[in-house]
Amino acid sequence: MAHPLQSLSFQSLFDAVADAMLLITDTGIITEANAAALSLLGYTAKEIAGLKVEVLVPERYRAQHLKHRTKFIRNPEKRPMGSGNELSVLTKDGKELEVDIGLSPISYQEKSYTLVTFYTVAKRKSVEQALRISEESLRLAKKAAGLVAFDFDADLKMRDTNEQLLAYWGAEQANIEQKSEKIDIVAVPIIHPEDSAIRASAIRHATDPGGNGELKVEYRIINPVTGDLRWVSATGRAHFRDGHATRLLGVVRDITEQKILEKKLQDQHAETETLFAKEVATQTASAIAHEINQPLTAISAYSEVALHALKQKVIDSVSLKRALEGCVAQAQRAGSSLHELLSFLHKGEMTREQLDVNNVVKEALVIAKSYGYSDFHPVLELESNIKPVLGNKTQVLKILVNLLRNAVEAMREAEIASSEISITVRTNANINMAHVSVQDVGPGLNYEVAKHIFEPFFTTKPKGIGMGLAISRSLAEANGGQLWLDPDAKLGATFHFTLPFAP
Ligand code: ADP
């Protein structure tokens, strides 16, 4: 029995091959092209036969191709063409297709031919494979991050029905995906009434050709069936062509848990602030009570004596006078105590005296240590014979002690062993003021924290109150100076404050 292949013609085999193939002579003339080659290159069998193979080579490679072909004819061997370079073939209508090319020399009736094979399918397959892998890893990454992608076209309709996004919107239960028309980004999800304007405006801005195309918005979605509220964060980017938004792509993420946590923190913070405000009010009230309690008691006692005398109708004008004088004195004492207290609380009305800053620094070190901030090593650089400054000693001490306390706490928190605090006192000739710097070797402050440290109640410490620096700055200002954080400090944190010299 004859082998079945023997009954097949070369042409029918040639045509049956899935890859595009050409047979060319050693002078580079195309003699045969199989069906796949004709379909790939867009020629008919008649048109292609007799053409120089260089017709299929993009013009910029032709001269080079000719050289390589001549070399190949001299030393024909079965090998891929282009040794790993990207190759392209020119179709009849001038399109360039990326291909891998295999060359096989064939001898027939003492003539040599080359069989040229274009591998496009393999290439496409490998690209598809790579794409599949990359899509898969993207899908996994999105899943891990809890992200759902969205893709909307120019009129803000979903490009392809995205089940995940619909589920996100709660549309699944409401059977919205059953509708045949394209799904609308604006109309479908039920947005919380307080957030719908924000979301609409964010989408409008993102798709405005005058803007930067960025979408970033947080809003609440109401589940149409259960009525549940979920917080969603959408991040995306619009693409524009000819001054029009053509597409809006991005991801949404459920941030409900995060929002709940944020709210809890805010509530806690508010509660702490209220507690603190109450504490301040209580302390102020007790201070006032403390100041006027004694005089009031005394006034009451004097008044009783006077009343008693009046009741007894034995008017002893001397003791009455003494009682009334006592009342006046005590009332005045109460008044002046209150005045002192208020002038301590209010800036501007305090007493100022000539101070030796070097001495005040030394005293502040003693006070800080007595408050339990003794685990540091002070490095003093004092300007001897610095001119005396004019200031309120208690307040200047308060500034220094606050700065020392912060420095020690920062270094303790960071568990820094060699807790060194350098304190420098010098004359700042530019502004003609005494200039005090307090530098620690702690972790310093990052930009975000540094922006807020002088705000009342700003603290990064679990038990902090966040008033130290706010008070210190207003004390420095009340004394005619300034207090600031060195933005360029190389090491740790450096705070500076100034005080005016006595005239
Ligand atoms: P509190 O000490 O009560 O938190 P402060 O007003 O004294 O309030 O300080 C506010 C914040 O500034 C601190 O919580 C801390 O984050 C930061 N800070 C202040 N001094 C330093 C420092 N020397 N090093 C690092 N951070 C500091």
TrEMBL record:
Its keywords, alphabetically, are:
ATP-binding, Kinase, Nucleotide-binding, Phosphoprotein, Transferase, Two-component regulatory system
Native source organism of the sequence: Methylotenera mobilis (strain JLW8 / ATCC BAA-1282 / DSM 17540)
EC id: 2.7.13.3
What would be an example GO MF term here? ATP binding
Q: Which CDD domains match?
A: HisKA, PAS
The name on file for this protein is histidine kinase
Signal peptide segment = none
Q: Which residues form the PAC domain?
A: 215-267
